[in-house]
Design goal:
With about 325 residues, the chain is mainly alpha-helical. The protein has a domain at about 105-315. It is about 80% helix and about 0% strand. InterPro entries: DUF7733 (IPR056635). Pfam families: DUF7733 (PF24867). Keywords: Membrane, Transmembrane, Transmembrane helix.
Length: about 325
């Protein structure tokens, strides 16, 4: 009796764990045999089973739980991961492309500069070969046979050779002055005052000889000079002056930087034309008023050429001042 009372007086927590597990095991077998017929028994058995399985041993790993919220979060994170990877690959590709473009842009100006170096020698050489050499070394008697059409055409052909060389020279100069990157827009528009002054000088170059010819035709100047002789002496001069005006207008319209040197090239050769006209005047026994007219034209075009050269110097100084101001402003801004 004492033993029985002692066992009854013991606390409930002293019951062995093995007995509790045995009871739960029997209940689990009973739940399987009834095949889920009793819903209340099902809930009770699931409750006891959960309590039994929740007490895991310390050395067992924690069970993997499943939650729909975790799935959505995982998929969302996976989508962000792919987007991040794709954006990272795009950024890396853009950086690589930028580096390739930078390397290409650094290499292309050097290659173009190597190609443009011969132009600095080839352009002036064309002017020398087409303008100066035929005028100085070609005997005048070989192209001048007298005051006739053949002599006029020979002299015009000689000046056309120079015009061809001058055109090539201006194209090469424009190529050297163009920017390294062809995608950049580049324009050089001359001032309106410069255009007006050049047109006035060119018109005066027309007016002076034509006025003398008209005075000879009207009989104001004696002795008269035949038209064919006048054409042989000053015909190539007037023709090349017309070509110069057209070339200048084209450079102004295209806004090419060669507008500054175009009149210098043609006016320098014009002096050679007029000096050749003096020799032809002696051969044709031209009247004194014609010789004085040619000498006056030489003096006028020397004056115009000097002013053109001063314009080049002024433009160079203006560009240098602008560059220095921009450099100073950039340094102060930094």
């Amino acid at each position: 009796m004492n033993l029985g009372m002692t066992s009854l007086t013991k606390p409930l927590t002293s019951i062995s764990v093995s007995a509790v597990c045995l009871v739960h095991h029997q209940r689990l077998k009973l739940w399987k045999s009834q095949n889920l017929l009793n819903t209340g028994t099902l809930h009770a058995s699931r409750k006891h089973f959960t309590i039994c399985c929740a007490n895991t041993s310390p050395w067992e790993s924690a069970p993997v739980t499943y939650s729909p919220h975790n799935e959505g979060k995982l998929l969302k994170e996976a989508t962000n991961i792919f987007e991040t990877l794709s954006s990272g690959e795009t950024a890396e590709a853009s950086v690589v492309n930028a580096e390739q473009v930078t390397v290409a842009s650094n290499q292309s100006p050097v290659q173009l500069q190597y190609l443009k170096w011969p132009i600095w020698v080839l352009g002036p050489t064309l002017l020398l070969a087409t303008g100066i050499v035929p005028t100085l070394w070609l005997p005048l008697s070989s192209i001048f046979l007298g005051p006739n059409i053949a002599s006029l055409l020979s002299l015009v052909g000689l000046d056309c050779i120079f015009n061809l060389g001058a055109s090539l020279f201006l194209l090469m100069a424009d190529s050297c002055a163009s920017p390294k990157n062809s995608t950049q827009r580049f324009s050089s528009k001359p001032p309106s005052s410069y255009q007006l002054w050049n047109m006035i000088a060119n018109i005066l170059g027309y007016v002076i000889p034509l006025t003398m010819l008209l005075g000879s035709y009207k009989g104001f100047l004696r002795p008269q000079l035949p038209f064919i002789s006048f054409a042989v002496i000053l015909g190539p001069y007037l023709l090349l002056l017309t070509v110069q005006i057209l070339t200048e207008m084209l450079t102004w319209h295209w806004q090419s930087p060669v507008w500054l040197v175009t009149p210098v090239v043609y006016e320098a050769y014009r002096l050679l034309q007029l000096m050749r006209g003096l020799k032809l005047g002696v051969e044709l026994v031209a009247p004194s008023w014609m010789m004085h007219t040619i000498r006056s034209l030489v003096c006028c075009w020397v004056l115009v050429l000097g002013m053109q050269l001063m314009r080049v110097v002024w433009y160079t100084g203006f560009t240098a001042r602008t560059y220095n101001q921009e450099s100073t402003a950039s340094v102060d801004g930094n």
